[in-house]
Amino acid sequence: MLRNWVKTMPSNHADTANRIFQEQKAHCAQAIFSAYGEQLSLGKVDSDTCMKIASAFSGGIARTGNVCGALTGALMALGLKYDDAEKADEAAVKLLDEFKSLNRSIICRELINHDLITDEDIKQAFAKGSFDNCPKFVEDVTVILDRLL
Question: What is the largest CA-CA distance in the chain?
């Protein structure tokens, strides 16, 4: 379905995703999905729409501390890539397994060692530097996702 998409994708998704993450103050899911979404959708979804679609996935899905936002952004990108749910699932399992082998978990609260349920939790997480490894998680996801795509 995605004719020649490789030729049009940016050469360094890690840089693109981390730039979105840092400069636009996006969270992990937004950074990943925005870095891939427009081109994987063949222009049917723009970057602003990608940001909106991914907005509820921060902090491990609505700040519940569940699956890392970088991974949920990548799972959405895989959904754009594959028409076949079975192929999407196969790629998703590979993504999750590889990420877990690199980072010991796919769960946000375990990766950052902090809960994010309340506003006070978030303030404490920023104060403790709990999000300092998030750019690495974003980069890890882009490396794996580039290989899977």
Answer: 47
